[in-house]
Amino acid sequence: WDTGSHPTPQDGHWPADLYAAFEHTGLRPLEDDLADAGYAIADIDMVIQTHLHLDHAGGLYAFEDTDTPIVVHEAELKYAYYSAKTDAGDVAYLAGDFDRDLNWKPVHGDRRQLLDGLELVHLPGHTPGLLGVVLELDDAGTVILAGDQAYTRENYDQGLPMGGGLLWSNRDWHESLRTVRDLERRHDARVCCGHARADLEALQDGL
């Protein structure tokens, strides 16, 4: 589920102005993080890219020239290339992250049952093709990975959108918020926000 930032953005992978705008701590090759968890790149059956911003798609290099399916919404893939290859769009898309020989598996529409107990939900707003994930877990029940639909609990709980520079569409963001809240209500689900430390720690602990 996403591949994080590129491990060496300071070496010219990120533009200097973008690099200076972020705090960078603990960046490591994806292979090292997987190894710490007891896995290797070859063990990964599929990658779900919720979107292709530079802090989420920087590890895709590890899957170049492999058969590993890279699942992404078609609207996201199109907008990422449009942004990276023209002077328009969003500067947070870097061609060096995703313009590679990857086994893309675009998904279309608003909902997609990808696997038993795993459904993808299109949540445009932060980006055109942001994907949320609805998981049905034996012990934890229904868990919704809202990703960057909501960076923090305040974004979700109080309905406060991220700053204008972090939104492709304010109107779509509010509509996607309603979608997630409806799923939460209907499934009595737990919602995890994309950059909320407590939510990420709960995921690491198995909720």
Automatic annotation (TrEMBL):
Residues 34-195 form the Metallo-beta-lactamase domain. The keyword Chaperone does not apply. Pfam families: Lactamase_B (PF00753). It comes from the Archaea. The keyword Transmembrane does not apply. One of its GO terms (molecular function) is hydrolase activity. Its cofactor is Zn(2+). Keywords: Hydrolase, Metal-binding, Zinc. InterPro entries: MBL_superfamily_lactonases, Metallo-B-lactamas, RibonucZ/Hydroxyglut_hydro. PANTHER family: 102 KBASES UNSTABLE REGION: FROM 1 TO 119443, QUORUM-QUENCHING LACTONASE YTNP-RELATED-RELATED. Belongs to the metallo-beta-lactamase superfamily. This is Metallo-beta-lactamase superfamily protein.
